[in-house]
Amino acid sequence: MPEQPIDRHLSRRERQIMDVLFQMEEATAAEVQERLPEAPSYSAVRAMLRILEDKGHVRHHEDGPRYVYRPVVARDTAQKTAISHMLRTFFDGSVEAAMTALLDATDRRLSRDEVDRLSSLIEERRREGR
């Protein structure tokens, strides 16, 4: 999928719609509505999809009388963009500060496997000089 600048500001409901589209890869307004918690009306979902399209997050193609929507960027690209924005906004670009906040924010302890995987990733980045 081609990457282009997008308006990052999404409401809670817009994020839920994007989650559905990322999971399904493409969907009609009715399919999105079926998968939303406490789903709004069909016309409200269509309106939000139109807003997401105006913001540059989704595009559509016509399949007979239906519009089929899909995300403009891949989920991993959207995740990286969101994380970069969060780092700049809340942590002055500090990965260490963000990781500390993530580790402190949860009530559950990391499993031994999770700690080992994170340690391996850190060591790999260290070897790469990143």
TrEMBL record:
BP GO terms, sorted: negative regulation of DNA-templated transcription
Protein name (Swiss-Prot/TrEMBL): Penicillinase repressor
Looking up Pfam families in the UniProt record yields: Penicillinase_R (PF03965)
Similarity field: Belongs to the BlaI transcriptional regulatory family.
This protein's superkingdom?
Answer: Bacteria
Is Transcription among this UniProt entry's keywords?
A: yes
Q: Name one GO molecular function term.
A: DNA binding
The record lists the organism as Gemmatirosa kalamazoonensis
What UniProt keywords are attached to this protein's entry? Answer: DNA-binding, Transcription, Transcription regulation
